Amino acid sequence: MSTKYKIHNPEAVYFITFSTVQWVDIFTRDCYRKIVSESLNYCVANKGLIIYAWVLMTNHVHLVCRSNVDSKLSDIMRDLKKFTAVQIVRELTANYQESRKGWLQWLLRSSANESSSNKNYQVWQHDNHPIELDTTYFVEQKIDYIHHNPVRAGFVTTAEAWQYSSARDFAGEQGFVTICPV
Known about the structure:
Elements (H helix, E strand, L loop, with lengths): L12 E7 L10 H17 L2 E8 L3 E8 L5 H22 L6 H13 L17 E3 L2 H17 L14 H4 L12
Antiparallel strand pairs: 1-3, 1-4, 2-3
Helix pairs in contact: 1-2
């Protein structure tokens, strides 16, 4: 079993990326983005997640984060992905205005059928792709990368204009997720 992308050091800061199955653009609607941002806040307040920077794109999440000494980051990520997947499927099923409902349900069911660990739907890819950030330079580099991701994607012209990002906090505005100062 590969150990290249595993969380080994419980005290380290990590750059973590987790993506939707098939890189499907689920997070084009506020109702689904809200599930992720509220869940991140829950993990900060109740599970020991410490977030230094974050961005929610249309099909993936980037975090610069660590856990407090009482919590395992891998457990937090597992629980976060499991909870948000259930909530996203619940919202998708109940959302009568979702024009992509049938297609998204088919895609998420098809992905679950290819996985031995999911029975009905699979929202997230299994891997978290954690990279340990062992210097201040790498932390700052990843924060810059995270904040400029929406700009590079062409969604906004300035990083702080993307609502679902800590770039707003770094610019002195109130963001959607509680972050810890770097």
